[in-house]
């Protein structure tokens, strides 16, 4: 690598990082930065999901990588090359938008060839390249159809081919599935995942859906208020949320104040028993009393809602019980119970 190519990088970039963000900051007019000095390395060939609630800075981060948004301070490196000040088209990134944003009046072939036309490439050559890419995503036979004559899955493949025609090193996707109906969304995300692996390309995918990120990502980057709260595999983030925010945001966890600090316990790790006067005092590490407020059948599981009496007052808690366990001892609305957990399942939040 030519060191002169990255003059403002405070440390050498690593070869296995497709994208590296160094103290990257974006300030709009308002006082709080939208993205606040984030550092991140995205491994080459990985599927990376930026996850977080609306307004946490995901799209701003993605747009700074794409070159659609100026950087206030910090750097964006692509394969070790500092691209912070390069125009979007010169970066080696490509973007895939919500609902694929295909031109409805153009054929699949012309949609894919569009950016080459903008670059001034002649018709024969651009159509040859577009046809080749459509073949690659198994859409060659439908090249003359317009988007309205294609299924959702076929449209997604055209959008993918259109993004790939510029031979990007990194594909950036901003909530590409969020406008689709739930059934199509699950189908499409399986396809995205398959294509990413098949192409061996680095994908950076923005979503506010925990479920989507868990299904897709090799690496999840959880953001909140313009900063990164945790980076890890879906398994790591779900099983060992680093902060109370993540435990709550990922769902499936109860955040409980024991009196000696807050802990997070997965709702399928909660132990529930009928109220017992000989049980340890409420609010201690041994557990706490609670009242059943909701019983919801979810097929193989029953989800119980409870009002728990924690050290600091009433706390909403959920417990996921296998259906067979619930059948052995059904709990009823308004019933008093005792909740506890194994120490190994209580994460410090
Ligand atoms: P996300 O994609 O996570 O929902 P965004 O990156 O779009 O969040 O926005 C982060 C913050 O920056 C929000 O507070 C948003 O209101 C603000 N913001 C985004 N774009 C602009 C803009 N063009 N001008 C001013 N503020 C913006
Ligand atoms: Mg957004």
List the helices and strands and how they pair.
Blueprint: E1 17-26, E2 35-43, E3 47-51, H1 58-66, E4 73-78, E5 81-82, E6 93-96, H2 108-118, H3 123-136, H4 152-164, E7 170-174, H5 182-199, E8 202-207, H6 210-216, E9 219-224, E10 227-232, H7 234-239, H8 244-250, E11 253-257, E12 262-266, E13 271-274, E14 288-298, E15 301-310, E16 313-322, H9 323-328, E17 336-340, E18 347-348
This protein binds adenosine-5'-diphosphate and magnesium ion.
Order of helices and strands: EEEHEEEHHHEHEHEEHHEEEEEEHEE
CATH fold-level topology of the largest domain? Rossmann fold
Name of the CATH homologous superfamily of the largest domain = P-loop containing nucleotide triphosphate hydrolases
Largest sheet: 6 strands, mixed
Give the overall shape, derived from the CA principal axes.
elongated
Ligand species: adenosine-5'-diphosphate, magnesium ion
Uncertain stretches of 5 or more adjacent residues: 1-13
Which CATH architecture of the largest domain?
3-Layer(aba) Sandwich
> Helix/strand/pairing class, anyone?
alpha+beta
Distance between the termini: 42 Å
- How many structural domains are formed by the residues? 2
Lateral arrangement of strands in the main beta sheet: 6-7-8-3-9-10
CATH class of the largest domain equals Alpha Beta
Describe this structure in words.
By secondary structure, the protein is α+β, with helices and mostly antiparallel strands. It folds into 2 domains: 3-92 and 166-239, Rossmann fold (3-Layer(aba) Sandwich), CATH 3.40.50; 254-348, OB fold (Dihydrolipoamide Acetyltransferase, E2P) (Beta Barrel), CATH 2.40.50. It is 26% helix and 32% strand. The protein has a 6-stranded mixed β-sheet with strand order 6-7-8-3-9-10, sandwiched between helices. A 5-stranded antiparallel β-sheet has the order 13-17-14-15-16. Strands 2-1-4-5 form a 4-stranded antiparallel β-sheet, with helices on one face. The structure holds adenosine-5'-diphosphate and magnesium ion (MG). Magnesium ion binds next to helix 1. The site of magnesium ion has 3 residues, from helix 1.
């Amino acid at each position: 690598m030519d060191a002169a190519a990255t003059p403002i990088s405070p440390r050498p970039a690593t070869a296995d990082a497709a994208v590296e963000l160094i103290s990257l900051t974006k300030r709009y007019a308002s006082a709080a930065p939208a993205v606040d000095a984030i550092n991140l390395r995205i491994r080459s060939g990985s599927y990376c999901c930026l996850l977080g609630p609306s307004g946490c800075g995901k799209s701003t981060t993605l747009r700074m990588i794409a070159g659609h948004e100026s950087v206030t301070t910090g750097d964006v490196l692509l394969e070790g090359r500092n691209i912070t000040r390069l125009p979007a088209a010169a970066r080696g990134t490509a973007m895939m938008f919500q609902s694929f944003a295909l031109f409805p009046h153009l054929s699949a072939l012309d949609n894919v060839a569009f950016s080459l036309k903008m670059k001034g490439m002649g018709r024969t050559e651009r159509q040859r390249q577009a046809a080749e890419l459509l073949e690659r995503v198994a859409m060659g036979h439908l090249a003359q159809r317009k988007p309205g004559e294609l299924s959702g899955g076929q449209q997604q493949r055209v959008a993918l081919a259109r993004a790939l025609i510029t031979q990007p090193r990194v594909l950036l996707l901003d909530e590409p599935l969020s406008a689709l109906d739930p059934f199509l969304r699950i189908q499409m995300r399986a396809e995205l995942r398959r294509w990413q692996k098949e192409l061996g390309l680095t994908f950076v995918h923005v979503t506010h859906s925990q479920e989507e990120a868990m299904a897709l990502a090799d690496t999840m980057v959880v953001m909140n208020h313009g900063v990164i709260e945790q980076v890890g595999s879906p398994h790591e983030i779900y099983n060992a949320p680093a902060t109370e925010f993540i435990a709550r945001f990922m769902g499936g966890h109860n955040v409980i104040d024991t009196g000696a600090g807050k802990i997070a316990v997965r709702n399928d790790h909660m132990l529930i028993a009928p109220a017992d006067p000989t049980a340890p005092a409420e609010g201690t590490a041994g557990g706490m009393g609670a009242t059943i407020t909701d019983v919801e059948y979810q097929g193989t599981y029953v989800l119980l809602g409870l009002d728990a009496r924690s050290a600091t007052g009433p706390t909403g808690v959920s417990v996921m019980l296998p259906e067979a366990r619930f059948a052995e001892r059904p709990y009823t609305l308004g019933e008093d119970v005792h909740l506890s957990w194994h120490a190994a399942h209580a994460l410090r939040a």
